Structure formats: C-alpha cells, structure tokens
C-alpha cells in the first residue's frame, strides 16, 4: 500500500513536471504569438506589387499559393507583409505575427484542442488573411519602386536582417522596376544600374534567404529587352546574398 502511494505520488509529480515543461515550450508572446523560449524559428516576408487588377483566375490562384505558404511554414514562423507603392509612406512591414500551434498537434491529455484552434483562427489566420485581402488589390500606381519597397519591408521586419533562422522572401510582382534608381521602361538593365550611383546604395540584407516569386504577367511594351528583367533580378539577388529565385507565373489561359 505504501509502495503504491509512492508510485502514485511519483506519477503525479512526473505529470506535473511534464505539463510545466510543455507549457514552457508552447508559451508565446501575447502580442506577436512568437515562442517565448526561442523567438521566431523562421521568418517569411511577403511583398505585394500589384499595379493593375488581377483576373479572377489569377486572384484565386494567388490566394491559394499564399495560403499554402502559410500552411507549409513551421510553427513559430514569423510573417510580415508589405506593398510596392510610389508613396514611400506606404512602405514597411505589417505588425509581425508568428504561426502558433494549431489543433492538429494538440495533446489530448494536457491541452484543449478547441481553445488552441480558436486562438489559431482568431489571433493568427484571420488577421493574416485580412491583411492579404486588403493588400492584394490594384494600386493603380504609375511608378513601381520594387527594390526600394523590398528593402523597406525587410529592414522594418524585426530580426530579418540579422537573424540566423531560415528566412524566406515571397514576392508577387511583374518584376518591372520603375523608379529613379532604375527603370526598365527607360532602357535600364543590370549594366546601366551597375554604373549608376544608385548601385552604391545596395546593401546585403538577404543573405541566405530563399526567394519565391509569383510573377504577374504584364505587357512589356516600352521595355527595350524583356530578357533583361530575368538577368537583372538574378544578379540582384546574387549581390544581396540570397538563393536564386524560384518563379511561378500567375497565368489565366
């Protein structure tokens, strides 16, 4: 009987210890939902460059791809978003949010799956989807400072430039840079950019980052050499220290 009582006490003590350990592992910041113990385990920034409206098929396809980016990210990944805008006041990053635990990984003995799912939906997924819906709209802008907006996004994202965790850049863009630094519509290419004063302003903020581009097909009318776009961006990401980009086209035919 005494031995049984000792075993019971030890068992209860073990359960208590395990519960406290799990609580520490899953503890998150109340505002960002990022893990308290480790901080973000990965970072994803999403840059949206939508000058003209998407077709219904392109819009549906894009949202499906972006939702998959969220679904495939590991728990604890920090997400921020930004837009390409001719108004520099619109540059920067949304408030960071980390992907929290979802109901599928809840421990049925020590966790409430319903509450975990509610937090995942209300505190993380819905705000992220709301930002996407708001930002996946045509800007109607006459200029497209992609490089400038991109750098504003990554430098405004907490930890992205200095972090050692896996980092990922997702861009939705037609790749048609059009600003004072470089304009493809004025015959700009990597060679002309390399000779310009703007080149001296380039940093190296994407070291080791994975790059995924969802390319929006646009008429390249006015662009002297459409092939210069691919060459430019390959060289740009190489200088920035990122991996060569993966590209998917948002087709609708």
Question: How would you describe the overall organization of this protein?
Answer:
With 253 residues, this protein is an alpha/beta fold. It has one domain (2-249): Rossmann fold. It is 38% helix and 13% strand. It has 6 helices and 6 strands. Strands 3-2-1-4-5-6 form a 6-stranded mixed beta sheet, with helices on both faces. Helix 6 (227-240) links the parallel strand 5 and strand 6. Mean pLDDT is 88; it is low at 14-23.
Question: What are the defining features of this structure?
Answer:
single chain; 253 residues; alpha/beta; Rossmann fold; six-stranded mixed sheet; 6 helices; 38% helix; globular
Number of strands: 6
In round numbers, the mean pLDDT is 88
Label the structural class: alpha/beta
Tell me about the largest β-sheet. 6 strands, mixed
Poorly predicted parts: 14-23
Tell me the strand order in the biggest sheet.
3-2-1-4-5-6
Could you give the order of the helices and strands?
A: HEHEEHHEHEHE
Shape descriptor reads: globular
């Amino acid at each position: 009987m005494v031995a049984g009582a000792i075993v019971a006490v030890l068992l209860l003590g073990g359960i208590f210890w395990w519960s406290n350990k799990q609580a520490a592992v899953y503890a998150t910041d109340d505002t960002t939902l990022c893990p308290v113990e480790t901080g973000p385990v990965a970072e994803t920034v999403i840059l949206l460059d939508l000058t003209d409206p998407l077709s219904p098929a392109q819009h549906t396809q894009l949202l499906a791809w972006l939702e998959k980016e969220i679904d495939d990210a590991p728990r604890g990944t920090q997400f921020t978003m930004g837009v390409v805008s001719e108004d520099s006041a619109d540059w920067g990053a949304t408030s960071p949010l980390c992907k929290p635990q979802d109901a599928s990984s809840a421990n049925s003995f020590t966790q409430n799956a319903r509450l975990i799912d509610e937090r995942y939906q209300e505190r993380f997924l819905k705000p992220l989807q709301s930002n996407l819906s708001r930002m996946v709209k045509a800007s109607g802008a006459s200029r497209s400072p992609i490089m400038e907006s991109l750098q504003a996004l990554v430098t405004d994202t907490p930890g992205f430039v200095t972090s050692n965790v896996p980092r990922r850049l997702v861009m939705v863009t037609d790749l048609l840079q059009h600003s004072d630094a470089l304009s493809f519509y004025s015959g700009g290419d990597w060679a002309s950019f390399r000779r310009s004063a703007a080149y001296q302003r380039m940093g190296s903020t994407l070291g080791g980052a994975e790059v995924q581009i969802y390319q929006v097909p646009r008429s390249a009318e006015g662009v002297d050499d459409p092939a210069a776009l691919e060459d430019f961006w390959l060289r740009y990401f190489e200088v920035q220290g990122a991996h060569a980009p993966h590209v998917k086209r948002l087709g609708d035919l």
